[in-house]
Each structure stands twice: as C-alpha cells, then as structure tokens.
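RECORD CONTENTS
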Amino acid sequence: MVKKLTPEQLEELARRAKSIRRNIVSMVTEAKSGHPGGSLSAADILAVLYFAEMNVSPAQAKDADRDRFVLSKGHAAPVLYATLAEKGYLPVAELLTLRKVNSRLQGHPEMKAIPGVDMSTGSLGQGLSAANGMALAAKIDARDYRVYALLGDGELEEGQIWEAAMFAAHYKLDNLTAFVDFNGLQIDGAVAEVMSPLPIPEKWQAFGWQVLVIDGHDHQAIYEAIQTAKTVKDKPTMIVAKTVKGKGVCKMENVADWHGKAPSREECELFLAELEGLED
C-alpha cells in the first residue's frame, strides 16, 4: 500500500507552494522579464519533491548520496530558484536579483554558481539526458540516490528527448523518475497546434517507461505517484502531470501569452493579493 501524506503535511505543502508562487511573481516582476506561466504550473510538483520526498539539504548540497533534480525546461528557473530559497539554499531577498547584471540567478539555472542546482539547463531537450547520466552513474557506483527531472510538454518536440527516452529504458534506470508538466501551452500557443507531441502517456509507454497520469496540482496525488515509481523495477517512470499554465493567478491561467511575459508592478500587487487569498 502506497504511503499517504498526513493532513499536517498537506497543509505545509500548501503553504510552501503558495510562498513559491508569490516569490515567482515578485521576482519576474522585478526582473521585468522571465517565464511565469510554466513556473507557476510546476510549483506544486517542486513543493512535493523538496518538502516531502527528496533527500536534500543546504548543509549537504554536495553530498554524494543526495537525490538529484534536473529542471530540463530551464526557462522555468524562477520556480527552481523560489523553491531553493524556500528550502534555505538561497536568501529569499536574493530572488529579486533575477536576471540582473552580476546576479548568480541567471535566466536559466547555472550549476557552478548556485547551490542546489545539479545541472545547468536552458537548451530544451538536454536535461533528460543529463538525468540519465546521473541515474546510470548511481547504478555503476552502487549508490541508492534517486534522480528526478521535470520536462515541459512543448519540450517533448525536441528529438533528443526521445533518444534519452530510449536510453533510460534500455539501461533499466528504475532510479529515475521524470515529470511532464502537461499544461498544454508553449510560447507560440497550444502544443497540439504548434507541433503536437500527443498522445503523451502512450508515447512514453511505447518507449518502455512506466507511466502514471495525475493531477499536477494535487499534492497527495503527486506524492503517491512518486512512491509508486519507487516500487517499479527495471524501467524508468514518467509521471504525466496535468497542470494549468499560470496556476494560482486567474489572469495568467491557460493563457499562452504569459509563457514569457513579466507582470507590471500594478499587476504584481493584484496577483500577490490573489495568491495570498488562496487557502493553505
């Protein structure tokens, strides 16, 4: 039987996700550029990973046995930075330096500059390959850490993703769990219209992966899917998380235009007030 989260744990995750979302909106507004839509859609996934599952801590940021996380859709750096700050890797105040000159918080994550970032990403399609390498290294070195990766649904249009999919299945990387942030939108519009990767679950199954389909904003469902993935042997797991682009901000939700647009300061105040009103 898959372990469930307690009501207290679910309440904490809701608080963490709200804080992450508020910081995403604030930092992108301050930077006057960035990618809020796909960052907000992934906030619940990262909240569960970092506060209910992964064996990571700022005090052991380089520990050889820590779990690894790769943000393959690197343009969603705000959600990773906000999560790392929530976890204590970064000062929360530093988030407002996003994309500024001499800031270590670049528009895409850089592993040499930022504690807690396991892989520099930004060129779409490459992150899953890096996660594969980490998972294979764990097998070779007989270590029991797990590797997690987050992909965008538009990113599935990249050919390297499917080479990596074959690799992970071929080498039976059952210590690898990946997520697709399936919000249905990319910078140019609906993924189904730009270059359709659909049907997503069936494709990953055909490539030899265990596939789970969940509500990507349901903390309990996210957690249970991760626990199920840990029981799977001899194949990697893909969790297809159905999400809402811009989740938590009504004006942003399901609007492709917010893929890479910053709010004005007036919009930011309204959005933060809306997020503050969300139930924990």
